[in-house]
């Protein structure tokens, strides 16, 4: 009835009916209007909520956000009437802007041309079923793993043979890794470290007399394995005598002193010799009897004990003084013993690190009482056969009589326990301080010497061991001995670990191990680390038309790879395993999960009912159907792998559209297309030129084939030293019409995609030459879902570039039918700040009629200067460029991020455009009012499992048809109007401020942590933020509230750059002349590529007397002589035919006089500096809001660049990845998406909230711009992951996770091309202490 009342109210308000009409006409008019509205909208109340369903095909495409239109919410009654702006209504201005943007998309990107090409092609129904697809994926992976298992068996046989010879020919000459000569190791991209393939080195303490080491014979075996299987990473052998041999030899990068990682592969060793679940309770004494050194040692032992356990082991932890304490949720910790997952290890490690020396003596009995209680409660809830208590203490008693009380408590614990419990003790001692009584006490506990104290025990207790520890060296070797009481029942089969971060090679790997035997005794464990990218390559790069995606789990339900996870090749930290039930997040999915784990193969269909968009991880389409929900079906088809713990799954979301495939077509032999590796191109075939900071060509477009185009993506990725011959074979195969040429490893679908996109190249080249808008356009490009990418003008691209994981591609696919604007971002090619215009192209239809539900065949796009959007905006709304008025115009995207705003291009002040500036920050005075408009915006969230965060973000209703303005209770001295730009993802807003009012909209200036993670109100203003995604340590489940959140569907990757030698770029002529000096007015110069209207002097404040148009490198952001984000020197700009600055010749006499005075000045300066160098202190007056000292604590170590030359005429120096790191001295946007940022589970945040105003913007520092941060070449590979003992930053994933991370948000672009450099605003005062 409420909904009907709203409809009637609207009709009465909008349709003026004469009061003198007869009643019959009243009824007829009412019925007509009602039928008109209900023909397009069907409203139904479900659980008190109004739901909108659309049955008009045109409106389906506009209703992606499941919004109730503002016209139907009776919201206008609270609004100020919309007034025209200089005689024009904002809705008309938005329509004019939409026409211009659509024109750019159709003509410049070639969307209409490409759509016509696809419509002219023939599509056929898909030939393969889901069962055939999943069987192929499983068979390929199974064959690969069996080859690796065969290699592991070969290594094991060699080790066992060497051990048979050991009694007569002991090999005890270890070769420590720290002794490997520095000159013999070189950086290897595949291993991500400096290595030597000539040696096997050992991570070991001093050897015993008969300790077994493999010696050089094992080096030969490992070397042979690597040659036959170059995708293997590390190979190792750990003997039971604690000798750890690794191949290839390396130096662990730990600073100036060579050290090795104590826990490396030790968990795999323990899991292999004891492949069953162990239950352990660790008690750490931190009473007043321990010295600081002893407490430090005790904490280190505890962390090592926990680190050695595997995810299927159970571990409890108790901190003991006069009272007991537990980590995390005390109720959970008291009642059960959780599994030793990565989250548990992290939480426990933080708890141990936080333990402080107590002021009270230790109550030993209390600790054992609680430990036995934990074990008893765990036995009742799970199947446990035995348990181990490890007590780490000094063992000091308040009195000698206390020892009997402790033993009595242990005896009582045994009597109430249903399983045998062993107690091991660790005596922490200081060197040179014998503690006989304490050691005897701890030994009595370990041996459970009840007879000594006349204590009777019905059942004979099993004795444990006592180990004294006086150092933190080789703790892992000691920790393994504590677990020796468990039976070693190794199985003669391969064991696979969960994915983990390789601290040496800086990548995500899986360890595969097998035990080695001598007769029936275990003598060690042999293993190899495999790149996760290699194992999951077919799932990672699974591409299929239609609504189908793939994922992989293990037989315990842990997710190994999923489309919502980032590619392993770009990971920079420890992945957090998640149960597939949480990641899929479909109602009743647990039923499917149980079937997947129990049955070797099968399929099952689940009806999915939701009011949210379908979380299709390949393409988010929204199907709006009646009956109050959105019902559709998902079919899961799975297959278990033999000899390995993995399950491959293919999921298909069923809709009315059948899956189709493009019939094979041929590409003309003569095509304007070359492979993107221009550095290896034949000079006589194409001419090269300099395109800003890139090598390019205008003779043809470039073709790039992403890893998904190849049958073996990982082999393509590791062989980045592609040769000229390989390129020739690829291009010859693509253009071959005889079918006689050998396939160089490409998928057959890739040829079709190349053939279609190549037909667009003539259109791009013509537009480049003839279009009047070419001066604003940087480049044009297109990509297909299978990873084929073409671009003009062409340049070299990163070897592991994947166009389908960029924001411009994902947004175009998710909002098919709309023109998508993404950005601004700093162009990796040197063109300054750009925005991207993209639009999806549908699968071909012979009728040429398409619907938003059609499958996407490609996305066409173009990069334009940020100024070009202002050119279009000023053309549609001239009021936006009028000076002297307190009027601001802005454009924002569907998530509220500003793509055009005066603050993004204002000269000087804010240091240039800022990526990912949100409307809640840039226009905070109206943000609160905007959130109160029903139907305009919805604050939503999703679970990001790749970094364990809950992402909160905004979703604006792009189907808005009305113009919104101030609500009655709004601030009327700040008036605004906002309207959707039809057919795009943009909103046009105009703000008129007649007063200075400061609103409050909290934005975290330290990280992205939300102000209050316990609630989320729709009308509360806050920048997009994130909260930790907590997993219950005891149950391993999310809490009920968080389980209702949808999963973030994908991770968006950042832009990266190619570094060239400056001499190489200087050797090429410019691809085109900038001619910036030809533009004499600001309106003509504004937005032209490579040009900047120079307005301010070098101080950034004083206006120039005669502003002029010049190269961007000379006057970046309108400030003369300022440094660009690329690190260009303003005095030595990029070579160009444009010459705005000309030097004045100086005569020889004047030059001599100047030289004399210069030398004299230098002499005086040096003298004064020498006299006073030790007599001055320097005090910084930089406000804390500029560059925080906490951000400078973790400096990036100087790293050598490791460059490998490529064959042929190769000018590529290195490949540098843009990793945004918040812990380096630079201010980071509080809502900026940053893939180098993550918060481990439970990680704390400094709640650095501040009121963000346009006048007091703590983020926009002119010389501390994050884009000036230049990282070393291999920083992403070498970046240290978060330690188990220290909390680290959280990754800022875009709401629909980069990437890092949700429908993806654009990301910060950092161009690492120069040595490490940080520019910060600093004022230094000299204070003479005399």
Automatic annotation (TrEMBL):
InterPro entries, A to Z: Ca_channel_alpha-2/delta, Sensor-like_sf, VWF_A, vWFA_dom_sf
Region (Disordered): 1235-1261, 1276-1301
SUPFAM superfamilies the UniProt entry points to: Sensory domain-like (SSF103190), vWA-like (SSF53300)
Keywords tagged on the record: Membrane, Transmembrane, Transmembrane helix
Biased composition (Low complexity): 1281-1301
GO molecular function annotation: voltage-gated calcium channel activity
CDD domains: vWFA
Chain ranges passing through the membrane: 1146-1167
Listed GO CC annotations: voltage-gated calcium channel complex
Domain VWFA: 279-423
PANTHER family documented for this protein: VOLTAGE-DEPENDENT CALCIUM CHANNEL SUBUNIT ALPHA-2/DELTA-RELATED, VWFA AND CACHE DOMAIN-CONTAINING PROTEIN CG16868
Protein name: VWFA domain-containing protein
Source organism (scientific name): Ladona fulva (Scarce chaser dragonfly)
Organism phylogeny: Eukaryota, Metazoa, Ecdysozoa, Arthropoda, Hexapoda
């Amino acid at each position: 009835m409420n909904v009907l009342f709203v409809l009637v109210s609207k009709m009465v308000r909008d349709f003026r009916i004469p009061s003198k009409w007869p009643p019959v006409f009243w009824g007829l008019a009412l019925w007509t209007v009602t039928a008109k509205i209900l023909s397009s909208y069907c409203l139904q109340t479900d659980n008190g909520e109004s739901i909108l369903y659309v049955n008009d095909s045109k409106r389906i495409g506009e209703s992606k956000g499941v919004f109730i239109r503002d016209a139907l919410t009776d919201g206008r009654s609270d609004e100020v009437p919309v007034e025209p702006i200089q005689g024009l209504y904002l809705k008309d201005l938005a329509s004019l802007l939409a026409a211009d943007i659509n024109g750019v998309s159709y003509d410049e990107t070639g969307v209409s041309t490409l759509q016509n090409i696809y419509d002219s092609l023939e599509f056929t129904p898909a030939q393969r079923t889901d069962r055939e697809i999943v069987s192929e994926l499983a068979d390929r992976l199974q064959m690969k793993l069996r080859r690796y298992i065969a290699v592991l068996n070969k290594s094991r046989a060699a080790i066992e043979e060497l051990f048979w010879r050991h009694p007569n020919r002991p090999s005890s000459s270890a070769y420590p890794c720290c002794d490997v000569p520095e000159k013999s190791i070189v950086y290897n991209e595949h291993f991500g470290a400096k290595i030597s393939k000539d040696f096997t080195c050992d991570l070991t303490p001093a050897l015993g007399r008969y300790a077994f080491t493999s010696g050089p014979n094992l080096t030969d075996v490992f070397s042979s394995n690597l040659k036959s299987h170059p995708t293997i990473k590390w190979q190792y052998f750990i003997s039971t005598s604690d000798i750890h041999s690794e191949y290839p030899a390396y130096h662990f990068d730990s600073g100036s002193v060579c050290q090795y990682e104590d826990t490396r592969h030790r968990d795999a060793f323990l899991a292999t010799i004891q492949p069953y679940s162990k239950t352990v309770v660790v008690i750490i004494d931190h009473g007043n009897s321990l010295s600081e050194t002893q407490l430090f040692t005790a904490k280190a032992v505890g962390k090592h004990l926990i680190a050695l356990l595997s995810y299927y082991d159970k571990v409890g932890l108790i901190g003991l003084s006069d009272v007991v304490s537990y980590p995390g949720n005390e109720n959970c910790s008291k009642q059960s013993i959780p599994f030793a997952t990565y989250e548990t290890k992290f939480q426990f490690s933080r708890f141990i690190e936080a333990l402080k020396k107590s002021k009270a003596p230790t109550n030993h009995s209390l600790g054992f009482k609680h430990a036995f209680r934990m074990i008893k409660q765990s036995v009742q809830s799970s199947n446990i056969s035995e348990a181990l208590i490890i007590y780490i203490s000094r063992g000091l008693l308040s009195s000698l009589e206390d020892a009997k009380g402790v033993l009595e408590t242990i005896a009582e614990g045994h009597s109430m326990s249903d399983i045998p419990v062993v107690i091991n003790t660790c005596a922490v001692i200081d060197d040179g301080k014998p503690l006989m009584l304490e050691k005897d006490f701890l030994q009595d506990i370990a041996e459970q010497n009840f007879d000594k104290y006349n204590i009777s025990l019905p059942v004979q207790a099993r004795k444990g061991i006592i180990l004294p520890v006086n150092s933190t060296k080789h703790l892992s070797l000691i920790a393994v001995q504590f677990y020796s009481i468990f039976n070693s029942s190794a199985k003669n089969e391969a064991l696979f670990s969960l994915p983990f971060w390789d601290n040496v090679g800086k990548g995500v790997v899986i360890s595969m191990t097998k035990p080695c035997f001598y007769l029936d005794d275990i003598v060690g464990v042999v293993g190899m680390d495999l790149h996760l990218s290699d194992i999951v390559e077919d799932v990672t790069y699974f591409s299929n038309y239609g609504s189908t995606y793939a994922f992989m789990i293990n037989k315990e339900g842990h997710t190994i790879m999923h489309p919502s996870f980032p590619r392993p090749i770009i990971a920079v930290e420890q992945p957090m395993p998640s149960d597939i039930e949480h990641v899929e997040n479909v109602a009743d999915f647990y039923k499917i999960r149980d079937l997947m784990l129990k049955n070797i193969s099968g399929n099952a269909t689940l009806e999915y009912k939701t009011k949210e968009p379908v979380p299709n991880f390949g393409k988010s389409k929204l199907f709006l159907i009646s009956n109050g929900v959105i019902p559709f079906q998902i079919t899961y088809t799975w297959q278990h792998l033999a000899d390995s713990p993995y399950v491959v799954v293919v999921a298909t979301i069923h809709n009315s559209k059948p899956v189709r495939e493009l019939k094979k077509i041929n590409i003309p032999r003569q095509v304007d297309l070359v492979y993107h590796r221009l550095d290896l191109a034949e000079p006589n075939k194409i001419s090269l030129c300099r395109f800003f900071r890139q090598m390019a060509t205008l003779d043809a477009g470039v073709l790039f084939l992403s890893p998904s185009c190849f049958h073996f993506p990982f082999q393509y990725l590791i062989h980045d030293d592609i040769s000229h011959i390989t390129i020739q074979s690829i291009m010859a195969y693509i253009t071959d019409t005889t079918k006689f040429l050998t396939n160089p490893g490409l998928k057959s679908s890739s040829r079709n995609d190349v053939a279609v996109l190549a037909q667009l190249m003539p259109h791009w080249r013509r537009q480049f030459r003839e279009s009047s808008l070419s001066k604003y356009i940087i480049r044009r490009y297109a990509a297909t879902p299978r990873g084929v990418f073409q671009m003009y003008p062409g340049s070299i691209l990163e070897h592991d570039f994947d166009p389908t994981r960029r924001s411009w591609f994902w947004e175009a696919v998710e909002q098919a039918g709309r023109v998508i604007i993404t950005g601004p971002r700093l162009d990796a090619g040197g063109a300054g700040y750009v925005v991207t215009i993209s639009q999806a192209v549908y699968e071909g239809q012979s009728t040429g009629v398409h619907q938003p539900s059609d499958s996407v065949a490609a996305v066409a796009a173009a990069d334009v200067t940020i100024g070009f959007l202002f050119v279009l905006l000023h053309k549609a709304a001239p009021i936006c460029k009028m000076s002297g008025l307190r009027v601001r115009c802005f454009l924002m995207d569907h998530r509220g991020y500003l793509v055009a705003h005066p603050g993004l291009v204002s000269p000087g002040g804010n240091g240039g455009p800022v990526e990912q500036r949100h409307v809640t920050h840039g226009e905070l005075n109206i943000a609160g009012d905007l959130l109160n408009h029903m139907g305009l915006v919805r604050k939503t969230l999703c679970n990001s499992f790749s970094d364990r965060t809950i992402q909160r973000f905004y979703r604006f209703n792009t189907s808005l048809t009305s113009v919104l303005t101030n609500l009655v209770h709004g601030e009327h001295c700040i008036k605004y109007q906002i309207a959707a730009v039809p057919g795009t993802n943009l909103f046009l807003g105009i703000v008129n401020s007649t007063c200075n009012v400061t609103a409050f909209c909290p934005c975290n200036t330290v990280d992205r942590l939300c102000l209050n993670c316990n609630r989320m109100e729709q009308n509360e203003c806050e920048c997009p933020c994130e909260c930790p995604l907590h997993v219950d340590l005891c149950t391993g489940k999310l809490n009920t509230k968080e389980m209702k959140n949808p999963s973030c569907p994908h991770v968006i990757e950042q832009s990266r750059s190619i570094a060239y030698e400056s001499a190489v770029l200087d050797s090429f002529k410019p691809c085109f002349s900038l001619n910036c000096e030809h533009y004499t007015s600001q309106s003509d110069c504004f937005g032209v590529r490579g040009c900047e209207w120079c307005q301010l002097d070098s101080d950034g404040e004083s206006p120039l007397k005669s502003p002029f148009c010049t190269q961007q490198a000379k006057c970046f952001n309108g400030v003369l002589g300022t440094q660009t984000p690329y690190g260009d020197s303003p005095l030595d700009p990029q070579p160009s035919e444009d010459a705005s600055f000309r030097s004045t010749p100086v005569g020889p006499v004047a030059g001599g006089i100047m030289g004399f005075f210069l030398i004299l000045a230098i002499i005086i300066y040096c003298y004064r500096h020498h006299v006073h160098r030790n007599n001055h202190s320097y005090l910084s007056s930089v406000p804390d809001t500029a560059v925080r000292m906490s951000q400078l604590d973790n400096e990036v170590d100087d790293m050598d660049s490791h460059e490998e030359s490529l064959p042929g005429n190769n000018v590529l120096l290195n490949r540098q990845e843009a990793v945004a790191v918040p812990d380096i001295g630079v201010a980071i946007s509080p809502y900026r998406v940053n893939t180098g940022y993550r918060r481990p589970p439970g990680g704390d945040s400094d709640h650095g909230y501040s009121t963000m105003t346009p006048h007091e913007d703590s983020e926009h520092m002119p010389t501390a711009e994050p884009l000036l941060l230049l990282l070393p070449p291999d920083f992403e590979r070498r970046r240290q992951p978060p330690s188990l003992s220290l909390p680290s930053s959280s990754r800022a994933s875009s709401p629909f996770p980069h990437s890092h991370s949700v429908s993806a948000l654009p990301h910060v672009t950092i161009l690492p091309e120069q040595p490490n450099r940080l520019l910060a605003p600093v004022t230094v005062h000299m204070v003479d202490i005399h």
